[in-house]
Amino acid sequence: MPELNVFNDSSDKKITKGVLVTAVFRGDDKDASEVSLDELERLLETAGGKCVARMTQIKSAPDPGTYIGSGKIKELAELCKNNDATLVVFDTELSPSQIRNIENEVNDGDSDIFVMDRNMLILDIFALHAKTGEGKLQVELALLKYTTPRLTGKGLQLSRQGGGIGTRGPGESKLESDRRHIKRRMDALEDELELLEKNRTVQRKQRDKSGLYKIAISGYTNAGKSTFLNYMTGAGILAENKLFATLDPTTRKFELPSGNEILLTDTVGFIRNLPHQLIKAFRSTLEEVMYSDAVMVMIDASEPECHNQLAVTEGLLEELGASGKPILYVYNKCDVETDLMPKVKQDAGENNVFFISSVTGEGIDGLVARIEELVNDGKTDETFLFPHNDQSMASVLYKNAVIADTEYLAEGVRFRATVDAKTKGMLAKYIVK
Q1: What was the pLDDT predicted at 151?
Q2: Residues 6+ apart with CB under 8 A from 393
Q3: pLDDT confidence of residue 238
């Protein structure tokens, strides 16, 4: 399982001190850059590091060599020295040559400062939190695809194996041998993931045969998706106040007040500028959203940036091809006292919008009632009788309905089933009046 980890050396448990760097270019929103830096700081903390300083450069355009320019690089080197920082994280995607140039500039004879970009940090967190076999394979593939072109940088030689950010990796035995071995490893990972994806497809088909209504819980990272699933179903999955605490999808049954059962699936959280390598590697996992009957978008109502986070989520749902499904907008964490709540409620609208707390249960009854409406929308209980010489049509019923009872009679096979309007129309001549 490869990792980048340059953070905590497991031998002394010291927290890596990091300097965060961003740049504001012509036409950029400076306030938005500060918000993005705040998120980068949370990412750093999630990975096990600590922000000791932040730097913002204002330029007309990115410097091709060092991104922020030679003058600012000297300030950065001094900032690292004054704060005993051993890590620099840029709030952007850096090219391999930029990483190499920046590391050469900020390191003198005695220092050993590691330079990474935002994508590397997110990948490192995914490597830290991946628990299942499939999750680990997905992260390893994404890491190899992203880091292989960047192996020329001092920090990314990856011979410095340790227990923290930037050294959570395969190390010398896998990455420093040569690039052909890496290519073979990536091919092997893709073959393994393809097999797992086929198995996941079989599992989806089995769930489809059950006829149960499927809702995917999506949303920005740390919106409370896992806490909600635990509250509803007692799933017992990890729910922490950390970014990307959940990477592997978890599906649980939930019984509605009517007695109908549905499937709720917790999915990996989104974040702005999610690395393309992760979207591709986790596609089979993210497809849980695509194959659902409805999507529940979880939003952290206590987060000042909740509306921007919602926009990111909606953009990714559209990219995944899931934006045309029924969507429930669920503002979570309403038990957290904040002055933002009145404005959040004012701006949220009214169509399929719910305010809940996954800790206290506030507002969940109204959400469950709406889910019940979605599940029963257009469905009716009908009795069908298929003659013995026309049993092939019964396959349509098995595929599209929830069968409650089957009875074999002299004139044919009788089914009692819950069907939608489309299936009812297709099999209208078999309905027993």
Answers
A1: 59
A2: 386, 427, 430
A3: 61
Q: Is residue 201 part of a domain?
A: no
3-state secondary structure of 212: coil
How many Å apart are CA 205 and CA 200, to the nearest integer? 9
Q: What is the pLDDT of residue 85?
A: 93
Helices (H), 210-354: 225-233, 276-281, 283-290, 306-319, 341-348
Q: Which CATH number do you get for residue 240?
A: 3.40.50.300
The H-or-E segment that residue 400 falls in is helix 394-400
Based on the fold, state whether residues 285 and 403 are members of the same structural domain: no
Within 8 A by CB and 6+ apart from 425, the residues are none
What φ, ψ does residue 342 adopt, rounded to 5°? Answer: -55, -45
- Is residue 369 located within the same domain as residue 403? no
**Range(s) of the domain holding residue 249:** 210-376
Counting Cβ atoms within 10 Å, is residue 96 exposed (0-12), middle (13-18) or buried (19+)?
middle
Q: Tell me, yes or no, whether 102 and 149 share the same domain.
A: yes
> Is 323 found in the same domain as 278?
yes
Angle of the 283-290 helix axis to the 133-147 helix axis, nearest 10: 120
For residue 167, what pLDDT is reported? 55
C-alpha to C-alpha distance for 155 and 150, rounded to whole angstroms = 10
Question: Is 390 part of any domain?
Answer: yes
Same domain, 146 and 97: yes
What is the token pair recorded at 141?
């593939």
Check whether residue 22 and residue 171 sit in a common domain.
Answer: yes
pLDDT tens-digit map of 312-334? 999 888 888 887 789 999 999 99
Single-letter residue type at 322: A
Same domain flag for 275 and 386: no
Tokens of 78: 């001094």
pLDDT given at position 12: 46
Tally of domains in the chain: 3
Q: How far is CA 191 from CA 185, 203, 343, in A?
A: 10, 19, 49
Q: One-letter amino acid identity for 29?
A: D
Regions of the chain short of the pLDDT cut 70: 1-14, 109, 150-178, 209-211, 238-242, 245-247, 281, 284-285, 378
- Report if residue 190 sits inside a domain: no
What is the reported pLDDT for 392? 87
Scored b (16 or more CB within 10 A) or e, 237-271 reads: bebeebbbbbbbbbbbebeeeeebebbbbbbbbbb
| Burial zone of 425 (CB within 10 Å; 0-12 exposed, 13-18 middle, 19+ buried) | exposed
Phi-psi region of 117 (alpha: psi -120 to 50; beta: other; left: phi over 0): beta
Residues 353 and 255 in one domain: yes
Instruction: Give the pLDDT confidence score for residue 153 in this predicted structure.
Output: 45
